[in-house]
Amino acid sequence: MELARATNRSVRLRNRSALLSRLFLDGPLTRQDLMRSTGLSQPAISNVVSDLIGEGLVVEAGVAESDGGRPSMMLRVAPRFAFVIGVDVGETLVRVELFDLAMTVLARAGYPLDPARTEPATVAGHVLAGIDAVTTQARVSCADVLGVGIGVSGVVEQGTEAVVHAQALGWDRVPLERLIRSGTDLPLHIDNGANTLGQAEMWFGAGRGARHAVFALVGSGVGAALMTNGVAYRGASSSAGEWGHTTLVYGGRTCRCGARGCLEAYVGAEAIIDRYQEAHGGRAVPGGDEESRIAALVEAAASSPTARRVLEETAGYLGAGVANLINLFNPERVVLGGWTAMALGGLLPAIREAAGRQALRQPYEQASIELCRLGVDAVALGAATLPVARLLATGGLRPTVDNHHR
Amino acid sequence: MELARATNRSVRLRNRSALLSRLFLDGPLTRQDLMRSTGLSQPAISNVVSDLIGEGLVVEAGVAESDGGRPSMMLRVAPRFAFVIGVDVGETLVRVELFDLAMTVLARAGYPLDPARTEPATVAGHVLAGIDAVTTQARVSCADVLGVGIGVSGVVEQGTEAVVHAQALGWDRVPLERLIRSGTDLPLHIDNGANTLGQAEMWFGAGRGARHAVFALVGSGVGAALMTNGVAYRGASSSAGEWGHTTLVYGGRTCRCGARGCLEAYVGAEAIIDRYQEAHGGRAVPGGDEESRIAALVEAAASSPTARRVLEETAGYLGAGVANLINLFNPERVVLGGWTAMALGGLLPAIREAAGRQALRQPYEQASIELCRLGVDAVALGAATLPVARLLATGGLRPTVDNHHR
DNA sequence: ACAGCTTAATTAATGTCGTCATTAAAGTGG
DNA sequence: CCACTTTAATGACGACATTAATTAAGCTGT
User: Signal peptide location in the record (chains A, B) (predicted)?
Assistant: First the structure.
């Protein structure tokens, strides 16, 4: 199982990684805090920290209050030690953002996509243009960029090179990594948008502190990110979490994936609109795009019993879907996100109740069901955490032997 | 995330654990094999191995073939270094088995349960009696028993003391660990029977070599064991894998758990019998217990179109349930077990086909769907692997400081 | 049968790294 | 300015793995 041999160096590596992670995730801490939370001895902490400071990864940031005794020095990850870029390849927009290590946005760029023809090459071009745009805009050298995280709304098969299957974009086996690679040397991390969003919520949002959490995303499509033992679970070929296409109504409505009775065929935005239309005698929901029509539907629920009933049914389906997640994963937390779920925020009590009806008592009581905190824009933020996660995991050591950078 | 500090000792610990695990799981190996598979240097291997041999954990077992050059020495875990006990607390029987470290059965004991009144104290008594029986029968001292693994058909909440919720036995919050603890000092490992069975298949059966696998068990009840990254995933309160109570037919048949449309309400043994009876105009399936009635039904399918249809429908439901597992977990392998699934073995092609209809293409193609190899008796074997897993994880060092045992 | 070759295992020297114990530093309060 | 307290830095020590060099133990062919 464990294939990595342990050597004396790996001890240092692990400890560096542990300290750096604590500092990154839990803000400024003193050496004493680190000592308590990692269990390492004082000299070891000081030793590692002095390395990290020497390399510019960590900086001292003021002194802590003290009532008697030498006050301890606050330590934090140097915000400008390096930068990361997060990209959100959505169905209608490619958004590129540049962050420092405090995850503050320094620059943004956006490129609308024509849903009719979303050529992979076009998207790759947008990503490369965005990288260029945000770095020049913020006057950041590419040499100081740790890497580029890219969240794509589709299945991302990780291999030697990430390959993307995105039904919504009409992509099948698109070698997105290779396409982007041809225009930049920056390290690339491509992942499912649901996973990157989940990662953002896990580190900075509703998932903080949870060990096992599920991020259930309902937008045009329906998906989920599974966090087990604090990290994303991706499965054998990185497609785990395809919650939207689990069967909830055996033999039910036909889903756009071809199967019948998928959850997405009941609670995806399009499905909700369709169901309302059917219930309403064929009359369509007013409004232009899906997003405004869902908003209109939610508003109409105040006066229209039909709209209300459709939304209540939606809560029932969604609750059952959440119950399935709870029964299978036994998470501490289920976080609902995605723009449709956000628009349906008022249904949360009904969803909870429906989940309670369908889930087993014991796991249901262990799980809290909440709304996400960061909004849908967090896909890029979450993507940007991917290179950061790598930095933390490697203890801040660049993979190759270019340790001369300081 | 990682709370364990790394120290120089932990290096040795990890390497011991890695070597021991390789030796246990992949049979006799040479020092050279270990060197290649772990990446450690030759002297390090020799050093650790000589410790292990000195402590009696490992023995040399003959020499390997050689065509020129000094032949290497085969090494293996000493079968009689220690013993483990596995217990299967089923719904009708408590089975206790004693194994050596080669996982050879040395002694067995069985205690039928009266399903009407399965008092926790009675079960605990049977377990204790069984421990006594198998150790005396095989003339093994309790001091040489590493621990007792117990697989229970119910949710096992791990805490300071394992607490069992077993609907089928009418148990709620039963402090089984405390009950057994009062009669023995042996280390106890209590877990869900599905998990222990999955563990057995993972190490010795259909799961060998898989990193991510799901063991789907269909018997009277329906459950699953989830193996992620080679180990059981238990979730926040150890109830992960409650596949049987996920909703497959929204608003469908009422399940014994109280919810509606659970998978178990369609493919559990009782449900199949009920569905046949309904389809057959109320006439019951002949036969005594569930097991023989399912067998009768399978046999009847050769001549009765009704029976055939019921079984085909069952394959459809089961396939959809498997598809849900595939979509959510993206496993390399789905292994079907449990006595009902075994009886329905002939349906495997139909189940595969149904799963293919409902699952997404990409994850479906990545997953193989197979029958289990070890049979239902493997619950005790799997339970017995729990103390072994602990031994391997700790590198063969007893937790307390009693290293003077050799 | 014995040199000559190959592969396996052990020994020796080196270097990394965390721990314990001790010392230096940097505050507060009387 | 001197006790007292808490934080940080040193130095001796021991645990371990690594590389390089030896020794051990078998084959092969003349």
Answer: none
**B93 contact to strand D (CB, 7 A limit):** no
Q: Is B237 on the interface with A (CB under 8 A)?
A: yes
If contacts are CB pairs under 8 Å, which of residues 71-100 in chain A contact chain B? none
**What string of DSSP letters covers A58-71?**
EEEEEE---SSSPP
Q: Which residues pair with A73 in a beta bridge?
A: A63
Q: Which residues of A touch B228 (CB under 8 A)?
A: 228, 233
Residue B17 distance to chain A (closest CA, Å): 9
Six token digits for residue B403: 């290293």
Does the beta carbon of A230 lie under 8 angstroms from any beta carbon of chain B?
yes
Q: Within 7 A of a protein CB, which nucleotides of strand D?
A: 4-11, 14-21, 24-28
Q: Which residue has the higher pLDDT, A403 or B95?
A: B95
A41 CB below 7 A from strand C atoms: yes
pLDDT band of residue B1 (cuts 50, 70, 90) is very low
pLDDT in tens, B3-13: 578 898 899 99
> Residue B41 CA to nucleotide D24 C1', Å?
19
> Residues with Cβ < 8 Å from B406, sequence gap 6 or more?
B54, B55, B56
B209-373 CATH fold:
Nucleotidyltransferase; domain 5 (3.30.420)
How many CB atoms sit inside 10 A of residue A42's CB?
11
Q: In the structure encoding, which two tokens stand for residue B300, read together?
A: 């009847």
Mutation site, A22, A212, A249, A360, interface B, largest B CB count within 10 A:
A360
| Closest residue to D10 measured CA to C1′ | A43
Cα–Cα distance, A168 to A193 (Å, whole number): 13
A281 beta carbon to strand C: under 7 Å: no
What secondary structure letter does DSSP report for A6? -
* CB-CB contact of A216 with A322 (8 Å): yes
**All CATH 1.10.10.10 domain ranges in chain A, comma separated:** 8-77
Question: In sequence order, what are the beta bridge partners of A95?
Answer: A88, A110
Query: What's the CATH number for A8-77?
Result: 1.10.10.10
Give contacts of B21 with chain A, Cβ < 8 Å. Answer: 1-2
To the nearest whole percent, how much of chain B has pLDDT over 90? 81
Minimum Cα–Cα distance from B320: chain A residue: A247
Q: Which of A250, A312, A313 has the most B C-beta neighbours within 10 Å, making it the best mutation to test the interface with B?
A: A250
Tokens encoding A164: 């993307």
Three-class DSSP category at B149: strand
Nucleotides of C under 7 A from a protein CB: 5-12, 15-21, 24-29
Q: CA-to-C1' distance for A269 and D5, Å?
A: 63
Residue A299 CA to its chain's centroid (Å):
29
Rg of chain B (C-alpha set): 23
For residues A60 and A52, give the distance between their C-alpha atoms in angstroms, rounded to a whole number.
Answer: 11
**CATH code 3.30.420.40 region(s) in chain A:** 83-198+379-399, 209-373
Q: Is B165 helix (H, G, I), strand (E, B) or coil?
A: strand
Cα angle value B302/B306/B308 (rounded, 5°): 45
Cβ of A40 near strand C (under 7 Å)? The reply is: yes
**What does the pLDDT look like over B245-260, one tens digit per residue?**
999 999 999 999 899 9
Q: What is the DSSP annotation of B295-354?
A: HHHHHHTTT-HHHHHHHHHHHHHHHHHHHHHHHHH--SEEEEESHHHHHTGGGHHHHHHH
Count of other CB atoms within 10 angstroms of residue B333: 23
Q: Does B254 touch chain A (CB under 8 A)?
A: no
Topology of domain A83-198+379-399, CATH? Nucleotidyltransferase; domain 5 (3.30.420)
Residue nearest to nucleotide C10 (CA to C1'): B43
CA distance B229 to A236: 9
The set of residues, in sequence order, having a beta carbon less than 8 Å from that of A250 and lying 6+ positions away, is A260, A261, B248, B249, B252, B261, B316, B317, B320
Q: Tokens for A295, please give them.
A: 């908003």
